[in-house]
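Record type: monomer structure entry
Structure origin: computed from sequence
Chain ID: A
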Amino acid sequence: MSPSALIPSSELPTIVLIPGAWHSSIHFSKITTLLRQLSYPVTCVSLASVGASPPLTATFDPDISAIRSIVEPLVLSSHKSVVIVTHSYGGVPANFALSGLLKQDREKAGHREGGVIAIAMIASMAVLEHERCVDVAEPLEGLEIDSAIEDRPSVTMSMENAIKYFYADCERGEAEEAYKALKPMSLACFAGAAKEGVRVAWRDVRWWGYLVCERDQAISEKLQRWMVGRVREERERADRDEGEKNGERITVEESCASSHSPFLSMPERVVEFLRRAAGEDI
């Protein structure tokens, strides 16, 4: 893959990667390398709920804080354009972490530069303001969240379940290495809700896209497409209600024939999706 000539390197937005439950930056190493070869600045959030000791026992507020600690300086201090990329559970705290940081928020405040220009979700949870992750997600066998939290504030995936749910289309050796990098996950985050009055960012961000993973065993294709349909409907309604006030919302749905982790099994396909989120016409 050669460096992009479609957008000058000085104008490329910063890509902020937000992993899902159990996962961390090491799992994004393939797409990070490819994006940097294209001259994109890339950073990855370390979620507070992943590997926490002691585990989080209330809400996912610490994950929201972790995301804002990365995005806020990029937008407010460095005046960077930012593309938010979420995977799986990461879509929940990410969409509650961007208040005041969207591009149009900055423009309304009189700042021409900087702001979140796009949210690109990969097999990721898209919830409404009042919803918990467990209200929408399909239960995974052996992981009954509500009943498990009191007895097991955090849980570590078995290799068998990790490969089944996360890495079914990866080579066995790669899947095992990915499993070894997983960390315990604080279960309370799945059952926690955001503070009242916080609006999910997917409603208002100008470019919102979703990469559906058709062979996903963790978040089924059916559920992914249902979430996309619901988001699309809400964004179209907002455009009708607001007219030109917020600018036209762009909603994109793409698909790939992968399991839950295409950044491992199909990194080039994921990067294509992210380049379009960044504004490249490819």
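Annotation 1: The chain has a mean pLDDT of 91.
Annotation 2: The first strand starts at residue 14 and ends at 18.
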